[in-house]
Design goal:
- The protein is an all-alpha fold and 316 residues long.
- The protein is built from 11 helices and no strands.
- It has a domain of 192 residues: MetI-like (MetI-like fold).
- It is elongated, with a radius of gyration of 22 Å.
Length: 316
């Protein structure tokens, strides 16, 4: 079966739930055991990433001497990589970098894409036509190619900074900020499409018509009436988009356009250790497993939110 495209995922996100499901049944069902496991994993990853500077772990960028060490070596629970840098430390700091890039990019997409989608869905007419065409044009570009082009354009052409130094572009942007900007631009049309589709539905409801009849201005109606009802669908796609952004950062790192080594991210850990002949398996598999579990947890919780939102809307 062919893989689903982003457009197909967006269409699935707004399909109504089955008629025999009720809000009470969904509330009782909850997110299940797997959902709670996914939530706990995500909370753990976020907490560890936030507390990385105060955790009692080694310097993730400090190279050692000698050969790489295997798992459960004294002083190195997850061993070391080919440069004898502690894998656990790099995994924790890599989570911090990867989450900063992905969450920042999706936040940018929600602000700009959500605003454009809300205006497009509420105003309709010529504005909707123009904005929808803009979304289609942006979605027509291959996402990875567009990200590579943006990063290559924004990155500095000057010699790279030394170990431990922050690389800045000509405009003063760090590598992290460049990745957020590039992946955020890609996230804008995805989040705009789902916001537009949801706003088209909610802007025709009775309470919106009543607000218009009472003389409420369009801006107030969009913010107070339509936006709160569109947020569940936006958050559902946002969780899925965070997972896509994490993978996008990893893909850019594998292509040499991600976070600059020796600063760690899950993507460049995979890129640096993808040759098993030069690096121990633990230095490769640990970030792969962490990335896989995080993306799977985000996808599961995103689907759970979508299911609950669809049922509530279908019952109105």
């Amino acid at each position: 079966m062919p893989a689903e495209t982003p457009i197909a995922q967006l269409n699935m996100a707004i399909e109504p739930a089955a008629a025999d499901e009720t809000p009470a049944a969904v509330k009782a069902k909850g997110i299940g055991v797997i959902g709670w496991v996914a939530a706990v994993w995500l909370i753990l990853v976020v907490v560890v990433a936030i507390l990385a500077p105060v955790l009692p772990i080694d310097d993730p960028e400090a190279p050692g001497a000698g050969r790489a060490l295997p798992l459960f070596t004294e002083g190195h629970v997850l061993g070391t990589d080919s440069s004898q840098r502690d894998v656990l430390s790099r995994l924790v700091w890599g989570a911090r970098a990867s989450l900063t890039v992905s969450v920042g990019a999706v936040a940018m997409g929600m602000v700009f894409g959500g605003t454009l989608g809300l205006v497009s869905g509420y105003r309709r007419g010529r504005i909707d036509t123009i904005l929808s065409s803009l979304f289609d044009v942006m979605l027509a570009f291959p996402q990875l190619v567009l990200a590579l082009s943006l990063v290559a354009f924004l990155k500095p052409t000057a010699p790279q900074a030394g170990a431990g130094e922050v690389v800045e572009a000509a405009g003063g942007l760090t590598t992290i900020q460049i990745l957020i900007l590039a992946l955020g631009i890609i996230a804008i049309p995805l989040l705009a499409r789902i916001t537009r589709a949801t706003s088209l539905t909610w802007s025709q409801r009775e309470f919106v018509t009543a607000a218009r009849a009472q003389g409420a201005k369009d801006l107030r109606i969009m913010i107070r009436e339509v936006l709160p009802n569109a947020l569940p669908a936006m958050f559902s796609i946002a969780l899925l988009s965070v997972g896509i952004a994490i993978i996008g950062e990893g893909a850019l790192s594998v292509l040499g356009m991600g976070v600059e080594p020796p600063a760690p991210s899950w993507g460049n850990m995979i890129a640096e250790n993808r040759s098993v002949s030069r690096a121990p398996l633990n230095a490769l598999f640990c970030p792969v497993i962490a990335l896989f579990l995080t993306v799977m947890a985000l996808n599961y919780l995103g689907d759970a939110i979508r299911a609950r939102f669809d049922v509530r809307e279908s019952s109105l």
